[in-house]
């Protein structure tokens, strides 16, 4: 059984990818909230993973390691498909999720056009995904893989904060797939009961000031997260 130390926030969707994958791979992981040691992780990025001489950063790479064959697909060809979904989500999907969600929950302050652009791009991507999932239960093959776990958790902040019931109504296939993934026993052990938003969150200047003050006060010296938190 794999045993390792995971540096990260257990409530963050990126860390949760690793924890869910670890359930499938039967890996024994201890979550550590402190910053990863600089001598081992000079980039200071989280999540970061330490297992003996194995040092990894980045949710997807760590999840592939701790999840093992159980999340990689059954053949080399299917594994390649898993990786392509991870690359697409990290490069295309996540920037739009965070570009829409973070201002909406008052975590960052940007102009309305930037938010609208991220929203439009995200919904366009979800419409494509909706068509792709029309006759599929999972993204790759006939069983759950890291592609499903990772992409679903990338979308988790959006489902919790900005994809309201009206917006979701046209994404029936994505909704079905998302619910299937987050209700898998191993995934649900990590994320719990997911409550979908009924009304999209809106930016609040007072809340933004409060959050900014808290972040400044709690910011550790040295090291940083590789991505903004939901």
UniProtKB/TrEMBL annotation:
<feature type="domain" description="GST C-terminal">
    <location>
        <begin position="75"/>
        <end position="203"/>
    </location>
</feature>
<dbReference type="GO" id="GO:0005634">
    <property type="term" value="C:nucleus"/>
</dbReference>
<protein>
    <recommendedName>
        <fullName>eEF-1B gamma</fullName>
    </recommendedName>
</protein>
<dbReference type="GO" id="GO:0006414">
    <property type="term" value="P:translational elongation"/>
</dbReference>
<dbReference type="InterPro" id="IPR050802">
    <property type="entry name" value="EF-GSTs"/>
</dbReference>
<dbReference type="InterPro" id="IPR036282">
    <property type="entry name" value="Glutathione-S-Trfase_C_sf"/>
</dbReference>
<dbReference type="InterPro" id="IPR010987">
    <property type="entry name" value="Glutathione-S-Trfase_C-like"/>
</dbReference>
<dbReference type="Pfam" id="PF00043">
    <property type="entry name" value="GST_C"/>
</dbReference>
<dbReference type="InterPro" id="IPR004046">
    <property type="entry name" value="GST_C"/>
</dbReference>
<dbReference type="GO" id="GO:0005737">
    <property type="term" value="C:cytoplasm"/>
</dbReference>
